Amino acid sequence: MRLYEFEGKELFKKFKIPIPESRLTGSPEEVFTAFNQIKGPMVLKSQVLTGGRGKAGGIKTAEGANEARAIAQELFKLTIKGYPVKSILVEPKLNIKKEYYVGVTIDRANYTLVMIASGEGGVDIEETAEKHPEKIVKKSLSIEEELYTFEALTIAKNIGIPPAQIKQGAAIIVNLYNMFKKYDAKLVEINPLVLTADDRLVAADSRVSLDDDAVFRHSELKEMGIEMRHEEGEMTPRERKANEWGIPYLDLDGDIGMFPGGAGFGIMGNDFIYYYGGKPANFMDSGGGPTPERLAKMLVLLDENPNVKAIFGARFGGISRCDDFAKGVVMFLKDHGLSKPLVMRMTGNVWQEGVRIFEEAKQASPELFKNVEFHGIETPIEEISKRAVELAAAQKGSN
Question: Would the N or C end of the chain have less CB density within 10 A of its end CB?
Answer without folding.
Answer: C
